[in-house]
Write a structure and sequence with these properties.
mainly alpha, Amino acid/polyamine transporter I
């Protein structure tokens, strides 16, 4: 048994965690941020980095020092922990993120190289089957992800992204454009809200467990040592995310005037890669997308399989992984747009609760005397988030919708913040009153 990992292995653990975070969304959001923010790209990037890098790293640390997501969420209530975590895993797993890893990577690795006479649907089906078969086989050994992802695939991914950045540095597509309207006045705020879309804060609440398994597989058994190594891996992953996001934002920043009117980050990358490398650009971009999506898929399959195997041990871990892969393969080919209509609002509803749980983890010592803060903040944060999502979906509630609009910060996407603070105040008062009632 060893007490700590050497520096090289520590770095590999961080690279492994980075590889699980860095999927399709992480590729396409920073370039589009750069293209849209233009000359305000770096002020917008500050906000983006806070939500897309800072919160995920804090999430890994929070869950690790709390003894796991279930232990953290159970401070609110055990039933809340079960329901919230199950919804969280299903939303970022087989109901959304896992199917998207296959469909998004295929969109870059399939259609650009297919002859016009070849139908796309059967090729996508074959690609999806091979993709999920390979990902499931790797996920069968979650304790060996450092070997598969950290040592083998992620260095290739980082090399390709660095090549794209260096080429853009040497041969820029054009100067930065004026910022779009959304970024003209409050670029950091807009960047912060845009960083939500990576959904890495939600993933962070799950990935720490897989990293801890890999640390233990390397011979570290003492609980404090495992926690320390996992936290260190979180910082390494955060540093890599920050560097890669900065490179991709730079690439996008220089595309605004050269390729105006781009619809999304995928188009920004495609047109930039074609400008830099010609026809070879499509191949480079396809490799980047396939590797990034594959790494994330493996991480999500491992996390979901581990969690549901723990909840329902009669069904083995392998069965859960194969089951989630099968469901994801179906959704990746049939009805993914419909599932997105359901899943995205769910993600928006549970995201503020994830931020709240992270904050509560770091306030544990201060809240020792005020345990009612946990359920009250979770209640008001969750209710306000759900009501906001319902309103965004056109489901207004008479007498309530107008009240939601009146909450400070609602228009900027922070309508849940004031109710959460109010819940903290109620929780403190509730705890004080309970103590007084219990005194003889």
């Amino acid at each position: 048994m060893i007490q700590k990992l050497d520096l090289k292995t520590k770095f590999l653990m961080g690279v492994t965690l980075f590889s699980m975070f860095f999927g399709a969304g992480n590729l396409i959001f920073p370039p589009y941020l750069g293209a849209q923010a233009g000359t305000s790209a770096w002020t917008a990037f500050i906000g983006f980095a806070m939500s897309a890098v800072g919160l995920p790293v804090l999430g890994v640390i929070a869950v690790t020092v709390s003894g796991g997501l279930n232990a953290l969420a159970s401070r609110v209530h055990p039933k809340f922990a079960f329901v919230y975590i199950a919804v969280l895993y299903l939303a970022i797993g087989p109901c959304l993120a896992i199917p998207r890893t296959a469909s998004t990577s295929f969109s870059m690795a399939g259609p650009p190289f297919l002859p016009e006479s070849v139908p796309e649907a059967p090729v996508q089906l074959l690609y999806t089957i091979v993709f999920f078969l390979a990902a499931s086989l790797v996920a069968m050994h979650p304790e060996k992800l450092t070997e598969y992802l950290g040592k083998r695939l992620t260095p290739v991914l980082l090399t390709l992204i660095a090549a794209l950045f260096l080429a853009a540095l040497v041969n820029p597509a054009g100067p930065a454009a004026a910022p779009a309207e959304a970024y003209a006045s409050a670029a950091p705020v807009e960047g912060f809200l845009y960083g939500y879309q990576t959904m890495d804060t939600l993933a962070a609440l799950n990935f720490g467990m897989i990293v801890a398994l890999n640390v233990q597989a390397l011979g570290v058994r003492e609980e404090k040592a495992v926690t320390g190594e996992t936290v260190f891996a979180g910082w390494i992953a955060g540093a890599l995310l920050l560097a890669v996001y900065a490179m991709l934002t730079f690439v996008g920043r220089l595309s605004g005037t050269a390729f105006p009117g781009t619809a999304d980050g995928t188009e920004v990358l495609m047109r930039t890669a074609e400008h830099l490398f010609g026809k070879a650009g499509a191949l480079i971009l396809a490799l980047i997308f396939v590797i990034a999506c594959f790494n994330t898929c493996v991480g999500l399959l491992s996390c979901c399989g581990k969690y549901f195997n723990g909840c329902f041990p009669r069904i083995g871990y392998r069965a859960w992984v194969w089951g989630f892969a099968a469901v994801s393969a179906v959704l990746a080919n049939v009805g993914l747009e419909a599932i997105l209509l359901f899943s995205v609002p769910v993600l928006n509803a549970i995201y503020p609760l994830a931020i709240l749980l992270i904050a509560l983890a770091f306030l544990k010592r201060a809240l020792t005397r005020f345990p009612a803060v946990y359920p009250w903040t979770a209640l008001l944060c969750g209710v306000s988030s759900v009501l906001a999502v319902l309103e965004q979906q056109g489901l207004s509630i008479p007498g309530v919708t107008g009240l939601i609009h009146a909450i400070p910060g609602y228009a900027a996407g922070f309508g849940w913040l004031l109710p959460t603070v109010l819940g903290a105040g109620i929780g403190v008062l509730w705890s004080v009153m309970r103590r007084k009632d219990s005194c003889p």
